[in-house]
Design a protein that fits this description.
This protein is of the alpha+beta class. The chain has three domains: 298 residues, no CATH class; 116 residues, no CATH class; 58 residues, Arc Repressor Mutant, subunit A. The protein is 39% helix and 20% strand. Strands 1, 2, 6, 7, 10, 11, 12, 13 and 14 form a nine-stranded mixed β-sheet that branches. A hairpin with an 8-residue loop joins strand 6 and strand 7. The radius of gyration is 30 Å and the shape is elongated. It starts with 5 loop residues before the first strand and ends with a helix. The relative contact order is 0.10. The site of adenosine-5'-diphosphate has 14 residues, from strand 2, strand 10 and strand 11.
Length: 490
């Protein structure tokens, strides 16, 4: 990756970044209760007695959440800890009825791992490995809403007790771009694994952004932590802002204090929330209501067997086995929905047409979806229809131009390409008799240009091709037109 530097009055500064990502575990029920986790329900309709912390209620670990955390760890090539434990993190807040959050401080379920990022999608030599420190499981808190007129505060406990994975990176990133690439890659892996939907707008994934600056090669500087940043763009902007702010402070003779900050998206700046001196003492201790988590070999084997092909492996296979260009392989594997869609096209048209199919998806389909403002999930054409269109191009029934026309009609009507071709007579013709007849007409109508061409104006060849194609309403096979025209003019 090209190195990112801040140019200060005293020289160049390097940025050091570590991210703590909270990812909501995909699970129908909460971490320690059977209440639903569905997004968008009426406030306080998904709250069990455990989530409301009624006296005497006991938490019961949800095996599915544990399984998802383990699968995620495996996908990040991380060490899985067969023995882990839940701790209580004690603090008082109105969105936390228990008065503590159940988390894992001392013995997390997943240890060290790593993620490979590419600065440049098209270039494997831009790869860099970012270390993962740990992943632990913890409960989410409820949500407070404040009303000014009159001044009331409301609490919604639907999120209370929802399982989160906290994925902590090492301080290995050195630029906003690397942090952006890391978050996108992590989100892609979580979505492939199916352990988190990665939906940052709905709060399923958010990051605490740790930033410090130093002179290149010096010891790490003091970091600040900007809490709960909820989009890739904001994470990158918060790093940029915070690094420049720290350089200004240091060059002005000040010190960076270790503190928690907030990102203000409207002002595009970070603001101090509390300093280290005001930091909570969470008085962590092992939760006496819960036994340690012990993972059996069978459970681990099942978790590993359930992992799908992951994005890096898929990208490499698309290049080496399917023969796709690095660009197409990277674009098609960046998101699991796109990869599944593309593979459904291959199921229909056959892997021998993978190259043609990859070009069609990345240019024609993506172009159309862009124009329509749709995502591939609600593509107006199905993978099977796309496969049929690609087959009709591969077998010569449709020229490139005709395929584009047929695709436009598919987008408008939802019809199958075969039916469109039949109904509208859009087949490409290689009938040399018919094409020769049209060529003769074109040459007769443009005798001056024929003379010019024969006199050496080679460029006019394109004009004759265009006239012939036009007269044949785009249905002539371009290769045949070229060949017959050369003969007629030669
Ligand atoms: P804590 O437990 O106090 O939150 P950690 O040592 O676990 O602290 O680090 C939390 C996050 O801060 C990690 O993602 C880590 O990579 C990052 N981090 C640690 N030191 C620095 C630093 N000097 N600059 C930037 N990020 C850092
Ligand atoms: Mg922290």
């Amino acid at each position: 990756m090209s190195s990112y530097r801040i140019h200060g009055a005293t020289g160049e500064w390097e940025v050091v970044i570590g991210l703590e990502v909270h990812a909501q575990v995909t699970s129908a029920a909460k971490l320690f209760s059977g209440a639903s986790t569905e997004f968008g329900a009426e406030p306080n309709t998904q709250v069990s007695l455990v989530d409301a912390a009624m006296p005497g209620m006991l938490p019961v670990p949800n095996a599915e959440c544990i399984r998802q955390a383990v699968r995620t760890g495996m996908a990040l090539e991380a060490r899985i800890n067969p023995w882990s434990r839940f701790d209580r993190k004690n603090y008082f807040y109105a969105d936390l009825p228990q008065g503590y959050q159940i988390s894992q401080l001392y013995h997390p379920i997943v240890g060290e791992g790593e993620i490979e990022i590419l600065a440049d999608d098209k270039d494997e030599s831009s790869a860099k490995r970012i270390g993962i420190e740990r992943i632990h499981l913890e409960q989410d808190a409820g949500k407070l809403m404040h009303d000014q007129h009159p001044s009331f505060s409301y609490v919604d406990l639907n999120r209370s007790g929802v399982a989160l994975m906290e994925i902590v990176s090492k301080p290995d990133m050195r630029s906003p771009e690397e942090a952006g690439a890391y978050i996108r890659k992590l989100r892609a892996i979580l979505r492939y694994v199916g352990s988190c939907d990665g939906n940052m707008e709905q709060g399923s994934m958010r990051a605490d952004v740790n930033v410090s600056v130093r002179k290149p090669g010096a010891e790490f500087g003091t970091r600040t932590e900007t809490k709960n940043v909820n989009s890739v763009r904001f994470i990158m902007a918060a790093i940029e802002y915070e690094a420049n702010r720290q350089v200004d402070v240091l060059e002005g003779g000040g010190n960076i204090v270790q503190e928690t900050r907030l990102w203000d998206p409207d002002k595009a700046e970070t603001r101090s929330l509390r300093s280290k001196e005001e930091a909570h003492d969470y008085r962590y201790f092992p939760d006496p209501d819960l036994l340690p988590v012990e993972l059996t070999d069978d459970f681990l084997t099942d978790c590993r067997a359930s992992l799908p092909e992951l994005p890096d492996a898929k990208r490499r296979r698309y290049e080496s086995v399917l023969g796709l260009t690095p660009y197409n392989a990277s674009v098609l594997t960046a998101d699991v929905t796109t990869a599944r869609w593309f593979e459904a096209v291959l199921d229909s048209v056959g892997e021998e047409h993978a190259g043609r199919a990859s070009n069609w998806v990345t240019s024609e389909l993506f172009g159309a979806l862009n124009r329509l403002g749709r995502s591939i999930e609600d593509s107006p054409v199905s993978p099977a229809q796309a496969g049929e269109l690609i087959r009709l191009t591969a077998d010569g029934t449709l020229s490139g131009t005709l395929a584009k026309q047929v695709f436009e009609i598919m987008l408008e009507t939802g019809q199958d390409p075969g039916a469109i071709v039949e109904e509208r007579g859009l087949k490409q013709t290689s009938d040399t008799g018919a094409i020769d007849k049209v060529i003769a007409d074109v040459l007769a109508a443009n005798q001056d240009k024929v003379a010019d061409y024969r006199g050496g104006k080679d460029k006019l060849f394109g004009f004759f091709v265009g006239q012939t194609m036009k007269a044949m309403q785009g249905k002539a096979n371009p290769a045949v037109v070229n060949e017959l025209l050369k003969k007629a003019l030669g």
